[in-house]
Specification:
five-stranded mixed sheet, globular
């Protein structure tokens, strides 16, 4: 998405369509809905929210009827931080009217993930995994195995990985455990995996290891 370079994922099965994150505003959510319908001829049936920051959740109301998945602590986070998310959105250049609408219409996950769960989209199964803490304490990643043995696994990483800027560690981050969580991502996707960051272009295992090492140098690691 042009605003903040948020990277959105789409996984299509024979019986369902899963969207990974919903962008920064209701208008962007509506734009995404139109793009999905134009691309697939279908509507979004499932949404996976990688974490609760406004630029990943504020478009969710544009997808009525979709099952919304999030890590189990995400609903409480969104209830508690609703006003703070609105103000964060405005500070980052989001139109205030759009941010206020998104905060009013904020959608909480209807499916809470404790550790890991699998979603069957019809001839396409995806794993939703809480790999550990890092960017937040409720990070969730989407693991999509290749359609054939020769295809790479794709991992939608949320903001545990960023490509178009330095990873951001706010007050709700867990920097000391972040490097170890990236090791868990590497185990999920493997050496041939394709890793989709929360912001920017798709990266590989080498990039993840370099970002892990940079985070360890920047913050240290938990013992």
């Amino acid at each position: 998405m042009p605003h903040l370079d948020v990277t959105i994922g789409l996984v299509v099965g024979s019986g369902g369509v899963l969207l990974v994150d919903t962008a920064s505003t209701p208008a962007e959510g509506a734009e995404l809905r139109g793009q999905v319908e134009a691309l697939t001829g279908r509507t979004v049936t499932h949404i996976a929210l990688t974490h609760g920051h406004f630029d990943h959740v504020f478009g969710t109301a544009a997808f009525p009827g979709a099952e919304v998945y999030g890590e189990r602590s995400l609903p409480d986070y969104l209830r508690r931080e609703r006003e703070a998310l609105l103000e964060s959105a405005v500070r980052h250049g989001t139109d205030r009217e759009q941010a206020e609408q998104a905060a009013r219409e904020l959608v909480l996950p209807t499916r809470q993930v404790a550790g890991e769960t699998e979603v069957d989209l019809g001839e396409r199964r995806v794993r939703l995994v809480h790999p550990g803490t890092g960017h937040t304490d409720h990070d969730l990643v989407v693991v999509v195995p290749g359609a054939s043995p020769s295809d790479p696994t794709v991992v939608f990483c949320g903001d545990l990985v960023e490509e178009s800027g330095e990873p951001q560690a706010g007050d709700d981050a867990d920097p000391a455990h972040w490097p170890g969580t990236l090791d868990a991502l590497l185990a999920l996707g493997g050496e041939t995996g394709r890793y989709v960051p929360g912001h920017g272009a798709v990266v590989d295992a080498r990039y993840l290891r370099a970002q892990r090492d940079a985070l360890a140098e920047r913050f240290g690691t938990a013992t």
